[in-house]
Amino acid sequence: MAARIPAVPTTRARSRAGGAGGGGAVLARRSVLGLFGLAALTACGADGGGSGGGGGKTVTLDFLSYNYGTPDLGGQGTQKLIDAFHAANPDIRIRPQGVAVKDVLTKLRTDTAAGNPPDVAQIGWSKMAEAYANLPLVPVQDLVSPADWQAHVAGMSRGVLDAVRHDGKVKAMPYTMSIPVLFYNADLFRKAGLDPDRAPRTVAEIKDAALAVTRTGAQGVYFAVADAGKSDYLTQSVIASNGGTLLRPDGSPAVADPAAVGALTVLQDLTVSGAAPAVSANDAVAAFAGGKLAMIVLSTAALTNFEKAANGKFDLRTAGFPRFTDAPARPTYSGAGLAVLTKDKARQRAAWRFVAFLTGAQGFTVITRDMGYLPLRPALVTDPAHLADYFAQNKRLLPALDQLDAVTPYTFFPGRSANQAVLALQDEAVEPIVLRKADPARTLNEAASKIRSLASRS
What we know:
Layout: H1 23-31, E1 59-65, H2 73-88, E2 92-98, H3 104-113, E3 120-124, H4 125-134, H5 146-153, H6 158-164, E4 173-178, E5 180-185, H7 186-191, H8 203-214, E6 219-223, H9 233-241, H10 258-272, H11 281-289, E7 293-299, H12 303-310, E8 316-319, E9 334-340, H13 345-358, H14 361-369, H15 388-393, H16 398-404, H17 418-436, H18 440-456
Parallel strand pairs: 1-2, 1-3, 6-7
Antiparallel strand pairs: 3-9, 4-9, 5-7, 5-8
Helix pairs in contact: 9-10, 10-17, 17-18
């Protein structure tokens, strides 16, 4: 989309202790952070010969992206980023390739085996462990000098950079990233006699609110843990917030431990009780966008599409990821990183300029304003040249920003079959438990056995 969707009434900015907003503290905390200027984005020019260009030659980089070419705001925003990069870097041309998110690894493995991998690829974090193990990634941190690296990441979220570090360095640059939040329809809250200014903060409160809504004929709540993208970011967020994890310290799967079983039992109870509909994630998203579902827990990446659907039709609000226990919620991140695969030094320099642009001030302005992902340079939130006007009118991302500093690192299953392990967890455990009343303990034990088997093959 070319312009921001007009805002509708939004969540009130309240303190973290007070509920859904927390925006004032976020903005104050981030206003003191340094803003990285655009000058460093062109610090590493492509000046080599051969296929890398330089000396008046134009470099063409292949960019594999699961957002590119999609008929949604992610596709439009990606094209806008590419157009802006072309305008600022006339000596580099980007040749984008669209691919479904579930097919990214297959495409990359096939192209790599054929000796023709893309120069830069957008890889989802749930697929990254297998990419580290099976693909010839060039760590982005190694593409430039330590001084240039520090200059670029100055002002980026330290929590995110620390969370994505692998083997001591950042191998894929944090790009389109988000964490799950509670989206809710304040009009359906009012109709059910609920206070829309007091968003549920715990899973128990969410269940109570959802059951109240169902008595009006609308649907209550949906945790999108089993989505079409086959990502386990929300499963991890739920389990971690219940005090669990996917892996024990020794690397063995913990998906059948009591905390994990308990977390998915809670979600199953939402379905069994009628608080949540037993439908696919796509159907739930459509129901929420159509004003028929009161609450959905989903990535902030859905925000811009929900805003478009809600504009003039219902009062869309957000709240932070809910607590499962007395301890703070522990959401993890979804989305993707940018990985570089080219071995040509000159093309690596051009690839770095592209990666640096996408993750610089101008890039994250588009990523947030037009695509709905989080600005990983927090100072942009109050910068008049970038996102200050956006956040002055739209507070819906503030609950997620308030939890970003404490984001839980994404947990990777070990081995070269890590993505198959994710699919086993999602398809053979999470979906049957939450949507089809499968026994949580037995089903998760079976998934744990399969995950152990997959790890032993590596």
